[in-house]
Amino acid sequence: MKKPVFDIDHATRILRNNDLGGYTIPTQGLYPFQWNWDAAITALGWMEAGDEARAWLELEMLLKGQWDNGMVPHIIFHADADTYFPGPEVWGVENAVKTSAISQPPVLASVVKILFEQGKDRALAEQKLAQLLPGVMAYHLWWYRERDPENTGLVCSYHPWESGMDNSPAWDHPLENVPAADWEYTRRDTGHVDAAERPHKHQYDRYIYLVDFFKRNHFDSDLIYQTCPYRVQDIGIISILHRANTDLLVLCQNRIDNDSTRSLQQSSARTAAAIGALWSEDLNCFVSRDTLTGAQLKTISCAGVLPLFGELASPAQAAAINENLGSWIEDAPFGLASTHPHSETFEPQRYWRGPSWLHINWMIALGLDTYGLSERAAQIKQVSKACLANGDFWEYYNSVSGEGCGGGEFSWTAAIALHWLKD
Ligand code: DGY
């Protein structure tokens, strides 16, 4: 019999240990609340662990933090914890359920579609879908209404944390336009994890400035759109949103009113028409763009491969990306490095500057399969499995040595292993 790649019971145990009663924290200490895209990915793990009700509950709990305007925040502070900074008092959001004031890559609808399709309890699946769909649709309409008020087709992001890829080298230039926070604060992350695997203070000072900026502007969407010193069209968010639009529209058939679906269809079509502006001819890949300068952000990163997942690349662009992936994997053979290893900014162990992240690899493999590039998809899967060889489920992996980095016993790594790498 084929030996399993990892211990399934261990992966399941991680979800159970990180379950704080309806929501799953990513890892103990470092991230003691519910995070937006972590929750979606983790729900896939709950499903695979055979607990369908718990999978749906994860998403219900996430939507408890949804704002009246439709935004699903990136952190939901369901309960107090003193091991994380910045907590709810720094964000200053006064809603009944305390949250942050930004969002995160909206993989939610794509996960809802998977849960709905894979659910064995059909009555539960129908009931939960009907319950969640209005909130998920409101979330997508929020992205386009608030983050693309000029109808460019390309939504924008106000904070590196919103990209989920906090310290990607892609954000180095736009962050130069952001002042540093002018008060002393104590980071908690470097108390849990080696500082060599986390962002620098220079970046944190700017992350915190932006948090203060949203609060100072009373979370006013128009004002923030006009004056935020960081406003980026993030190719990762745009691609994940586009894929999620397609998935959501399939789920909406005969279930949700035509005005919303028509509006979303139009926005999605605008994205597809506009995506060429984020293709870099000289790098032969997709990139993000700083909307304040109009400049493309010339970093070859895993975000630039996500248009395959979003089905936004032309066949020629997909072929060019695929070719690039060859040397990418050869020089950093554990998973797909978050920054191309040939890049001057590549650091194989530092968070989003080079480690590989299994949930991203999953999306990329799905995208490659969609374009018929199944050999490369299989290779991405194989190098992702290699990260699990030591039997642990880390937040991310050093893409050159395969060593686990960041938080340990990590929910989304366990979940993606269960969902994708179990065979
Ligand atoms: C952190 O605190 O590192 C998170 O990535 C913010 O979402």
What would you note in describing this structure?
The chain is mostly helical and 423 residues long. It contains 17 helices and 9 strands. It has helices at 8-17, 36-48, 52-63, 88-91, 108-118, 122-147, 160-163, 172-176, 189-192, 201-216, 221-227, 235-252, 258-274, 315-331, 358-370, 374-387, 411-421; strands spanning 34-35, 75-76, 232-233, 279-280, 285-286, 288-290, 296-297, 396-397, 404-405. The strands form 4 sheets. A 3-stranded antiparallel β-sheet has the order 3-6-7, covered by helices on one side. A two-stranded antiparallel ribbon has the order 1-2. Helix 12 (235-252) packs antiparallel against helix 13. The chain is globular, with a radius of gyration of 20 Å. The chain starts with 7 loop residues before the first helix and ends with a helix. (2R)-2,3-dihydroxypropanoic acid is lined by residues 74, 161, 166, 189.
List strands and helices in order, with pairings.
Blueprint: H1 8-17, E1 34-35, H2 36-48, H3 52-63, E2 75-76, H4 88-91, H5 108-118, H6 122-147, H7 160-163, H8 172-176, H9 189-192, H10 201-216, H11 221-227, E3 232-233, H12 235-252, H13 258-274, E4 279-280, E5 285-286, E6 288-290, E7 296-297, H14 315-331, H15 358-370, H16 374-387, E8 396-397, E9 404-405, H17 411-421
Antiparallel strand pairs: 1-2, 3-6, 4-5, 6-7, 8-9
(2R)-2,3-dihydroxypropanoic acid binds next to loops.
